[in-house]
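Practice problem: predict the structure.
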Amino acid sequence: MTTVVIGNPIRNLRLIIDQVFQGLHNLFFDKEVQKVEPGITEVTTEVKEPSGYLQKGNRKQMCDAEPYETEHAYGLVYDYEEEKVAPSFKGPQYQVYLERAAELCDDDPECKYFNLWTDGGITKFREGQCENLKDTINSTLTYEKIPLPPKLGTECEDRGYKKYDWYDFKKGEVSLSEGSGQANSEWDEYGKCVRVSCKDESKELNGVRKCVLSTVEQFSTEEQLAQLRAVRDVQNAVDDAQEVHNNEKRLFDECFEVRQEAVIQGRELDWRGYTIAGSWEGYETCKVAAKEVNANENPGALQNAGSGFADDWTLGGDEAGIYW
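Answer:
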């Protein structure tokens, strides 16, 4: 990463020195871990890609073109914050830099790609500037801005009865579910691919969007309308119940990030009125707190317990092999 010395020579000299040491760090210590308690090693969590972005290429690779704009070391650090280098490409500090870099790219119509370093420096590239990647000495990651979802009603690939998100589809994170390819599917206003009809005219969509043998022709017009309304109500109930489960996962992730920060700071922190410790107890508190906050935000959440709706998310901690 090229640094241009402008302004205060002392500050810029320090930035250059920081970058040199960061380059050596990335070259020899890509997988640094930190001791947080005797006998316990910190295991950092995977960083979440910002919504609307896809990681491109491998580490130590960047766009093979001259960037049109550069934010040098600590360019993503606010004035009132301490200048920090993220220990690796995992963990809360790099997540902060990643989200801020995505915001800058979102606000810039010319920005199609950006490279991000652990020292909070980024370079931005336009459309067509990142067709090829080149190797670098320092570790960096490249992110591509994914186009907006197709227009409402545009045909999409039927991958089964489960709705899927446009960005997950672009990232290759959508698995096949039952009856893939049996229905006509379209993008809705929320950027989700949903089934609208079965390709086999003798079949119809049931409450969970599976193609089953049609029974509509056996009923009167009023009965058909009533059945369609019932199907719609079941579909809405499925979506609502799934969102309750998804919300609990989001709440747990939010609490778990606070727990990670508690580990780093070595003290208890507050999350929505709960005291979160940087220990195993903090992890257990997050599980309980996520359920309770979710129940308060969704009064009907508890009545769906054991309903059979998809609850396919996994907590961190023991399930993920995280014991810190």
